[in-house]
Design brief:
Layout lengths: L10 E5 L2 E5 L5 H4 L2 H15 L9 E6 L4 E3 L2 H8 L6 E5 L2 H9 L3 H12 L9 E10 L7 E7 L8 E4 L7 H14 L8 E4 L3 H16 L13 H13 L4 E2 L7 H14 L11 H10 L10 H13 L2
Helix pairs in contact: 6-8
């Protein structure tokens, strides 16, 4: 039928209960179709509106490619896009985001964390946390890795978690434990000492990462840096802290032994699945996903668009 664009020429994106109706490049005759004119007119109206300032907040991903807390929607979207049953939410405060990640109500978590945080009196000049990672049958099929973060005896911020993803290696567990310590730190202003016995993590933090950043995350042999995704996250968290962060080595002290026990318990927990994507595939996906929340029509807007379109039939 003249002037109508077949439905197959449209791509419908569905995200967060919003719908984006988008059409790929088509011959010039389609540019003047009734649907194209309606969408173009509405888009021009939207672009001419004064956009409100984006409210700051924290995007918490409980279930996704890489669970954690992110500062932008784009980072959050990358972790939940095409992930089955992903769970994520935006919060105005870091405390609420952390409570969502842990799976408890904010009121319960607030009571526990406030009581623990109040134990840091005015005389405290720095925070100390012990981290450890382990992998049962490391390097073999069926390996199980866990992470442990120890803030103190019976401290509510102590963590015992299964390492996410299919790469259940000791090195990834060690790095992730440090990352989780940074994510759960109760005070970003105070200096933080993260005690780990991982020479791999310490060497990366003190020597290798600055060189990798300069080389575009390439080794001396021009190969991609292993575990780059975790190191990038580590750098982001450290740079976001106003307080100084130090990662010294340690062996055979009570805090380390407690973190080790937590890591081993974490390795026995249920698998946390993530979908792994190669760097090449990720770049390809990102180029195809170059849209934001503002690129989507709400159901109400789509209803109005449909009414305008059908009035032209």
């Amino acid at each position: 039928m003249a002037g109508r664009l077949p439905l197959r020429n449209f791509i419908i994106f569905i995200s967060n209960n919003s719908i984006k109706l988008n059409h790929p490049k088509q011959p010039s005759r389609l540019q003047t179709s009734p649907i194209s004119r309606v969408l173009r007119r509405r888009n021009n109206t939207i672009l001419n509106k004064k956009m409100p300032k984006t409210k700051l907040g924290y995007y918490a991903v409980r279930i996704g490619h890489k669970p954690g807390i992110y500062k932008t929607w784009e980072e959050c979207r990358d972790q939940v896009h095409k992930y089955p049953n992903a769970k994520y939410e935006k919060f105005p405060t870091l405390k609420e985001a952390q409570a969502f990640i842990s799976g408890v109500s904010i009121s319960e978590k607030e009571q526990e964390l406030d009581a623990a945080d109040n134990s840091y009196n005015a005389e405290v000049t720095k925070l100390v946390v012990w981290t450890d990672g382990c992998s049962l049958n490391n390097g073999k099929d069926g390996a199980r890795a866990g992470i442990g973060v120890f803030w103190g005896n019976n401290h509510p911020r102590n963590l015992s978690e299964r390492l996410p993803g299919y790469k259940q290696t000791n090195n990834r567990a060690e790095i992730t434990a440090v990352i989780r310590a940074l994510e759960t730190c109760p005070d970003s202003e105070l200096p933080l000492e993260i005690m780990t016995d991982s020479k791999y993590t310490i060497n990366a933090y003190e020597s290798w990462i600055p060189k990798w950043i300069k080389s575009g995350w390439k080794t001396a042999n021009k190969k991609p840096v292993e575990n780059q995704d975790l190191f990038v996250r580590l750098v982001e968290l450290i740079e976001a802290r106003p307080g100084k962060t130090h990662v010294p080595g340690h062996v055979g002290i009570p805090g380390n032994e407690a973190a080790d026990r937590l890591a081993n318990l974490g390795a026995l927990k249920e698998e946390v699945k993530t979908t792994t994507v190669s760097s090449t595939e990720q770049k390809s996906q990102n180029s195809k996903m170059n849209f934001t929340e503002d690129d989507f029509y709400s159901p109400e807007e789509l209803t109005e668009i449909a009414a305008e379109i059908y009035s032209l039939r």
